[in-house]
Amino acid sequence: MTRSEDALETATSDASLARSKARSAEIDLAIDQAPSRFRILTGDRPTGHLHLGHYFGTLRNRVLLQNRGVETWVLVADYQVITDRDGVGPIRERVLGLVADYLAAGIDPERSTIFNHSAVPALNQLMLPFLSLVTESELHRNPTVKAELEATEGRAMTGLMLTYPVHQAADILFCKANIVPVGQDQLPHLEQARLIAQRFDKRYGRAVEDHPVFRRPEALLSRAPMLLGLDGEKMSKSRRNTIELRMSADETAKALRKAKTDSDRVITYDPAARPEVANLLTLASLCGAGAPEEIAERIGDGGAGMLKRITTEAVNEFFAPIRARRADLAADEDYLLHVLHAGNERANAVANETLAAVRAAMGMDY
Ligand code: TRP
User: Fold this and answer.
1) How far, in Å, from the CA of 6 to the mean position of ligand 1?
2) Checking CA distances to 361, which of 47, 53, 79, 95 falls within 20 to 30 Å?
3) Nearest residue (CA) to ligand 1, atom 6
4) Considering just the CA atoms, what is the radius of gyration of the chain in Å?
5) What is the model's pLDDT at position 7?
6) Burial of 153 (0-12, 13-18, 19+ CB in 10 A)
């Protein structure tokens, strides 16, 4: 790539990010006016227990959207686990653990649909016609696929890894979601889903006369602050720098005691110069301890010890009810299975409908 092309690409992506942000703000207003016009889809790969980064990054936001009256679908993306690792681990336990995390955080199974990939055959069948609508070079250019490939450190890329954005498009399009709450890094996925919807309707739409088979999903960019891990790096399970939703108060205190800080005794909120200290202040603030600057002022020259104490108290107080609910739920496997089965039933009904419309549009409804 030449320099000027490089610059052009950056400029266009800045412009499209600005557009996405502006559009997200419009959607946010529209939700307040008519929440029933929207259906959101979100989801997670069941790779382990959810942590506070997930909670403040996405989970809390889903619950808020649900409570504003938006129909909320939450996908336990079990087939996506086999795209990026050889083994699925203790998958049953992880899937049920994720369901428990969702419910404990406030996803209400009466109003929202929790379901998993492998139980919805018609969703997966959409992958075939969808794959015919994308080119191989397009897949290779997908920034998320590229990033995933880099993260696997040179291991060969599987066919499923290369095509997983198409599978994710099937997730979004089958259930007629028109909003997907995402972080910036997931924007290319959504673009891929929109492209597939457009191309499908262009190629097969004639059969159904101007009647698009698919809705066009849009991103709802989250404004959630980014929490770092306790070592100041990106929060991630594999780095063991997280606080999990399900941890006990003692485990939380222990993890926070080991958090990285710096040697300046006077606590100030300075995200650029003191990212680790600022991160703990942000966490305490998210858990209701006040504005980060205010907390810093209260601590003054109380040092890192006091900062950690205050953060621990705030986290443990904030998460106590969620953790208590989670413990009850985790002890009731039958109930978790019941929730998942009910969600899968609803997901299958919609997926079968969508697949029928797809087959009709393709002239394959013999
Ligand atoms: N890719 C998401 C993750 O890694 C999980 C996911 C799969 C998803 N399909 C989705 C998220 C559809 C939103 C919409 O956590």
Assistant:
1) 29
2) 79
3) 43
4) 22
5) 44
6) exposed
Contacts of 110 (CB under 8 A, 6+ apart): none
Q: Whose CA is closest to atom 8 on ligand 1? A: 43
| Ligand 1 centroid distance, CA of 182 (Å) | 9
| Closest ligand 1 atom to 168 CA | 9
Strand partners, 73: 41, 113
Instruction: Tell how far the Cα of 77 is from the centroid of ligand 1, in angstroms.
Output: 7
pLDDT tens digits for range 143-155: 888 887 787 777 7
**Of all helices (H) and strands (E), which one includes residue 257?**
helix 249-257
Q: What ligand 1 atom has the least distance to the C-alpha of 77?
A: 7
Distance CA 234, CA 226 (A): 9
C-alpha 277 to ligand 1 mean position (Å)? 31
Q: Quick one: which atom of ligand 1 is closest to the CA of 42? A: 13
Distances (CA, A) of 122 to 71, 117, 170, 365: 21, 10, 10, 14
Residues 332 and 321: their CA atoms lie apart, in Å, by: 17
**Neighbour tally for 300: CB within 10 Å:** 12
For residue 218, give the 3-state DSSP assignment.
Answer: strand
The answer, yes or no, to whether residue 251 has pLDDT greater than 70, is: yes
Can you tell me the distance from the alpha carbon of 299 to that of 297, in angstroms, rounded to the nearest whole number? 5
pLDDT beyond 70 at 9: no
The first and second tokens of residue 146, run together, are 């590229």
**Is ligand 1 within 6 A of the CB of residue 180?**
yes
What number does the ligand 1 atom closest to the CA of 167 have? Answer: 9
CA of 168 to the centre of ligand 1 (A): 7
Give the pLDDT confidence of 92-147 residue by residue, as tens digits: 999 999 999 999 999 999 999 999 999 999 999 999 999 999 999 999 999 888 88
CB neighbours (10 Å) of residue 203?
Answer: 14
Return d(Cα 257, Cα 260) in angstroms, integer: 9
CB-ligand 1 contact for 45 (6 Å cutoff): yes
Whether residue 279 is predicted with pLDDT greater than 90 in this model: the reply is yes
